[in-house]
């Protein structure tokens, strides 16, 4: 088979998915601050101690202003010795939500261990630096102190090692065949079981193509060039991200399809079905994906969406969302929705100059009520906003 005919595609804006990035940027920052306050030996943080955290938290406003925005989570009080120094501790509501989060972490520990194993199994040396893992902690739904708790409880799964450059890493102790099964394979098998798809039965008989689910912006899918290209792509053999790829020509279409499969799997393992491009870049060599991997996201807009919201580049797995909502929300994402609802309610009360809202009232409404109304799945082609395929900035 000859090389695939590749079509240069315009970047397409998806308002629903951009909205997800918008609200989750503040949510993630609030969760990190909540964990930092909880870890603090004094049980509070001073405004001075968090003043330099703005970039780390991905915020577009100073940290002090951010903390003051959400009085339902962060209770402000003056320092005992320095009256002009604002301090912040967690409200009763925040502490209650945190204890619910602990319960979820405990009851879903087996799932977290499996996801962490899968991430390590995709790496060339079955190791990942703790720095890279720390960046992915929120996206993978790892508990705050996972190195001291989760990892230590599973010595037959994980161990700490030092890389040749001296960086601390987490390593997989033993390969686990039962986990070497991608989300795409599972999806196709589930469809096969329900009689929806015969391709998986063929795949198991040794015919190695598997279909990636794709949804195109209006007008894209109908273009003959795009359709022909995607048909060619789908017909290429599917190589599991858990299989050895050392014998595949790195310049081939097959290697490109393998790289798409790796990115698809890694995004499937995140609980919000998304992560920042920079986080992926730190693991690029271990994942054996091309240096200029951003072009894979722009080249396959039926599978991925690249959002430029909040002064960063986030990549989203499109099949994980429908009308801006997660299709199969993990219990932790449901709790985070509740957390966001509490944030938003406090923000609105504060903006209206009302008194403190009661804990009962805060948790009364469903968290989804406060999110934007479900819109259409419509995406629009934004003229002049073509993403540079080679742009690997940040």
Structural commentary:
By secondary structure, the chain is of the alpha+beta class. It contains 16 helices and 13 strands. The strands form five sheets. The protein has a three-stranded antiparallel sheet. A three-stranded antiparallel sheet has the order 5-7-6. β11 (321-322) and β12 form a beta hairpin. The chain is globular and about 70 Å long. The relative contact order is 0.15. The model is unreliable at 203-207, 365-377, 381-386 and 388-394 (pLDDT under 50).
Structure in a nutshell:
This protein has 394 residues and is of the alpha+beta class. It is built from 16 helices and 13 strands.
Distance between the termini: 37 Å
Number of strands: 13
Strand order of the largest sheet: 2-4-3
Count of separate DSSP helical elements? 16
N to C succession of SSEs: EHEHHEEHHEHHEEHHHHEHHHEEEEHHE
Low-confidence stretches: 203-207, 365-377, 381-386, 388-394
Sheet with the most strands?
Answer: 3 strands, antiparallel
CA-atom Rg in angstroms: 22 Å
Strand content: 5-15%
Q: What is the 3D shape?
A: globular
Helix percent reads: 40-55%
* Mean pLDDT across all amino acids: 84
Protein structure class: alpha+beta
């Amino acid at each position: 088979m000859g090389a695939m005919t590749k079509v240069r595609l315009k970047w397409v804006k998806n308002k629903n998915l951009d909205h997800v990035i918008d609200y989750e940027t503040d949510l993630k920052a609030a969760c990190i601050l909540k964990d930092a306050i909880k870890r603090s030996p004094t049980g509070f943080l001073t405004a001075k101690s968090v003043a330099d955290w703005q970039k780390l938290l991905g915020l577009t406003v100073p940290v002090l202003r951010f903390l003051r925005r959400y009085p339902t989570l962060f209770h402000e009080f003056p320092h005992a010795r320095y009256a002009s120094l604002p301090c912040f501790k967690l409200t009763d509501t925040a502490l209650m939500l945190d204890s619910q989060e602990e319960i979820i972490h405990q009851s879903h520990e087996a799932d977290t261990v499996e996801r962490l194993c899968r991430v390590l199994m995709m790496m060339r040396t079955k190791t990942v630096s703790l720095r890279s893992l720390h960046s992915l902690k929120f996206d993978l739904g790892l508990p705050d102190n996972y190195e001291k708790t989760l990892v230590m409880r599973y010595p037959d799964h994980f161990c700490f090692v030092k890389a040749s450059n001296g960086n601390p890493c987490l390593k997989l102790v033993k390969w686990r065949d039962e986990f070497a099964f991608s989300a795409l394979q599972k999806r196709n098998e589930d469809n096969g079981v329900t009689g929806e798809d015969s391709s998986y039965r063929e795949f198991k008989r040794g015919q190695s193509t598997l279909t990636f689910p794709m949804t195109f912006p209006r007008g894209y899918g109908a273009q003959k060039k795009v359709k022909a290209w995607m048909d060619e792509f789908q017909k290429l053999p599917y190589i599991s991200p858990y299989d050895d790829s050392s014998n595949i020509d790195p310049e081939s279409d097959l290697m490109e399809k393998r790289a798409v499969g790796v990115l698809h799997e890694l995004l499937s393992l995140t609980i919000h079905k998304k992560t920042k491009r920079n986080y992926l870049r730190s693991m690029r060599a271990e994942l054996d994906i091309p240096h200029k991997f951003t072009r894979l996201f722009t080249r396959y807009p039926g599978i991925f969406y690249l959002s430029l919201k909040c002064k960063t580049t986030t990549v989203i797995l499109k099949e994980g969302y429908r009308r801006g909502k997660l299709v199969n929300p993990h219990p932790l994402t449901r709790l985070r929705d509740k957390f966001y609802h509490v944030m938003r309610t406090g923000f609105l009360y504060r903006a209206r100059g009302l008194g403190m809202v009661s804990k009962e009232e805060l948790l009364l409404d469903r968290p989804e009520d406060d999110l934007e109304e479900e819109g259409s799945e419509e995406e629009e082609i934004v003229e002049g906003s073509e993403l540079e395929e080679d742009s690997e900035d940040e």
